[in-house]
């Protein structure tokens, strides 16, 4: 959940390169940030609380540097807890993504060291200072990625188990980052480090080894064909807005794909976390309607199914990053039980991509905004394709919403609702996951409490909370629930292709059968975005959230 960037090369601009890399990665963590570079025979650093934004650095010229944007786990958001952390002699510094679960036990054994922070990272650093990176890594419990800057030898040392690390092979310089997008300004030649692997990076050489044995490994070098320009803001005010407007192109590209074939199995689990879990639930409805035995599972709850897993089963996983820790753990568990893995992700070379037997790329381009938009609609589109549902008119339908009068109508509604404390959202059948995602988007970026229910459940308790003027979003054909909420004073906002007199506001979408879910959720995305802007918030960087959840 943190952003990491390091470089060692010939040019003495390491601090500027690291700063630029961290700005690319800020969506992975923006509580605080810091950079360290070599100066003379030691290290110098700067650390700051808050977003990196338009920051500049005055660190001295250096050929080697390491930086980090933090999403706090152990220890509060303070400058002292920000990475990089220094060893006792200020010759080594460490950045870290993950959690050291046994840090208190390790700290008790590290006598003679001075601890200046509350973090588990600093404990790991002093452990590495005492026994070395590889020996120390074997003592650490948890899913982690560590990068150590060794100023005495002008090298970066890294090792991982669970959290992503990617090596970039450049001209007269080599790089390391927690996300491939940060490397695209420098190189398209990358190595995706595997769990249990370590790497030594100098200006001239990259050496990958097995962490336990020290055996040298010949790594696979991947050539990327992505363009760095994909992540530029351009004419838009926020990345969330840009990414909403990217969706017609993404959907148009997906509509040209041949539907991937999923081999029949006795049972198929469909898994995701957060937004991706709603894409999984949407696909579950579609597969059920097709007569397949499927079950949607929230990633963090998959452990309870382990006694039910059998080799003749399959698992379909949705993940924007392909690095979400609960997804990765579920894949490892399913593979150990012999299940066939179908991975649906937006990131080529991600852990999910590499571990999957069948790989499906969303092709949505980089998402910088923390709240997912275009990756989610791409997931819905893939779910439709897997069930042989057409996509031919979906992109045009979304484009009409974005370019037509609906756009201003959503803005006007957001102005009307911006001071509300609660919004209720309902949907029926395959529209229920869309209601769940709509409520999540509103919560994530506007901080308005939004709650979603299956339409038939609203009268089993939640309707007690409806009072005069309570905003109620109604997706699809959930009109019975709409009338029930209207009778209690609810402000009824319909989103679908069937108009009804019950609606106080109505946003029509084209009748695309099951695919109507996509233009419906785009309207909800716009509403969430406009609510955030109307409330003076930055929708790209919601408080307390990070883009990729790589810690438990």
Helical content band = 25-40%
What is the arithmetic mean of pLDDT? 93
Using the 3D structure, state the CATH architecture of the largest domain: 4-Layer Sandwich
Poorly predicted ranges: none
* Rg on CA atoms, Å: 24 Å
CATH fourth-tier homologous superfamily of the largest domain:
Aminohydrolase, N-terminal nucleophile (Ntn) domain
Q: What strand line-up does the widest sheet have?
A: 3-2-4-1-10-9-11-15
Count of alpha and pi helical runs: 15
CATH class of the largest domain: Alpha Beta
Structure description:
With 552 residues, the chain is an alpha/beta fold. 29% of the residues lie in helices and 24% in strands. It contains 15 helices and 25 strands. An eight-stranded antiparallel beta sheet has the order 3-2-4-1-10-9-11-15, covered by helices on one side. It has a seven-stranded antiparallel beta sheet with strand order 5-6-7-8-12-13-14. Helix 6 (247-255) runs parallel beside helix 10 (374-386) and helix 7 (275-289) runs antiparallel to helix 13.
Question: What are the salient characteristics of this protein?
Answer:
552 residues; Rossmann fold; Glutamine Phosphoribosylpyrophosphate, subunit 1, domain 1; alpha/beta
List the helices and strands and how they pair.
Blueprint: E1 3-9, H1 14-25, E2 32-39, E3 42-49, E4 64-70, E5 85-86, E6 92-98, H2 103-109, H3 120-131, H4 133-137, E7 144-150, E8 155-161, E9 166-169, E10 173-177, E11 189-192, E12 197-201, E13 206-210, E14 216-217, E15 222-223, H5 239-245, H6 247-255, E16 268-272, H7 275-289, E17 294-298, E18 314-319, H8 325-336, E19 340-345, H9 351-355, E20 358-361, H10 374-386, H11 394-403, H12 406-417, E21 422-427, H13 432-446, E22 449-454, E23 471-475, H14 479-487, E24 491-496, E25 505-508, H15 517-534
Parallel strand pairs: 16-17, 16-18, 18-19, 19-20, 21-22, 21-23, 23-24, 24-25
Antiparallel strand pairs: 1-4, 1-10, 2-3, 2-4, 5-6, 6-7, 7-8, 8-12, 9-10, 9-11, 11-15, 12-13, 13-14
């Amino acid at each position: 959940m943190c952003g990491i960037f390091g470089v060692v090369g010939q040019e003495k601009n390491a601090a500027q390169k690291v700063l630029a890399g961290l700005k690319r990665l800020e969506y992975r963590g923006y509580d605080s940030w810091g950079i360290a570079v070599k100066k003379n025979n030691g290290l110098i650093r700067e650390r700051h609380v808050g977003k990196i934004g338009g920051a500049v650095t005055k660190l001295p010229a250096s050929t080697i540097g390491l930086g980090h944007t933090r999403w706090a786990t152990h220890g509060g958001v303070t400058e002292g807890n920000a990475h990089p952390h220094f060893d006792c002699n200020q010759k080594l510094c460490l950045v870290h993504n993950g959690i050291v679960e046994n840090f208190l036990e390790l700290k008790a054994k590290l006598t003679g060291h001075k601890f200046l922070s509350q973090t588990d990272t600093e404990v790991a650093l002093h452990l590495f200072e005492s026994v070395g990176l590889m020996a120390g890594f074997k003592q650490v419990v948890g899913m982690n990625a560590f990068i150590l800057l060794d100023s005495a030898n002008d090298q970066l040392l890294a090792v991982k188990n669970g959290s992503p690390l990617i090596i970039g092979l450049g001209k007269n310089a080599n790089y390391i980052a927690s996300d491939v997008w940060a490397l695209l300004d420098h190189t398209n030649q990358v190595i995706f480090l595997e769990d249990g692997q370590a790497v030594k990076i100098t200006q001239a050489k990259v050496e990958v080894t097995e962490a336990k044995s020290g055996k040298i490994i010949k790594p696979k070098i991947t050539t990327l064909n992505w363009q760095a320009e994909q992540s530029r803001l351009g004419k838009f005010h926020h990345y969330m807005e840009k990414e909403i407007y990217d969706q017609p192109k993404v959907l148009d590209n997906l509509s040209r794909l041949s539907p991937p074939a999923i081999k029949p199995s006795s049972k198929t689990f469909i898994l995701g976390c957060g937004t991706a879990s709603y894409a999984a639930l949407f696909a579950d409805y579609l597969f059920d309607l097709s007569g397949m035995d499927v079950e949607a599972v929230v990633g963090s709850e998959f452990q309870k199914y382990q006694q039910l897993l059998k080799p003749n089963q399959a698992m379909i996983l949705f993940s924007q990053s392909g690095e979400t820790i609960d997804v990765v753990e579920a894949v490892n568990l399913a593979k150990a039980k012999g299940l066939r893995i179908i991975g649906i992700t937006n990131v080529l070379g991600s852990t999910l991509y590499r571990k999957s037997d069948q790989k499906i790329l969303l092709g949505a381009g980089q998402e910088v905004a923390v709240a997912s938009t275009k990756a989610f609609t791409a997931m819905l589109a893939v779910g439709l394709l897997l069930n042989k549902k057409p996509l031919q008119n979906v992109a045009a339908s979304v484009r009409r919403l974005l370019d037509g009068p609906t756009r201003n109508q959503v803005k006007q509604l957001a102005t009307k609702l911006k001071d509300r404390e609660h919004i209720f959202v309902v949907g029926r059948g395959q529209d229920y996951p869309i209601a769940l995602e709509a409520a999540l988007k509103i919560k994530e970026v506007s901080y308005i409490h939004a709650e979603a229910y299956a339409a038939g459940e609203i009268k089993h308790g939640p309707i007690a909370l409806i009072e005069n003027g309570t905003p109620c979003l109604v997706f699809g054909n959930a009109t019975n629930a709409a009338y029930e909420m209207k009778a209690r004073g609810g402000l009824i906002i319909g989103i679908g292709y069937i108009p009804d007199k019950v609606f106080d506001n109505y946003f029509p979408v084209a009748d695309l059968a099951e695919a109507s879910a996509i233009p419906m959720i785009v309207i909800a995305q716009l509403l969430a975005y406009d609510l955030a802007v109307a409330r003076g918030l930055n929708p790209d960087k919601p408080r307390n959230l990070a883009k990729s959840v790589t810690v438990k």
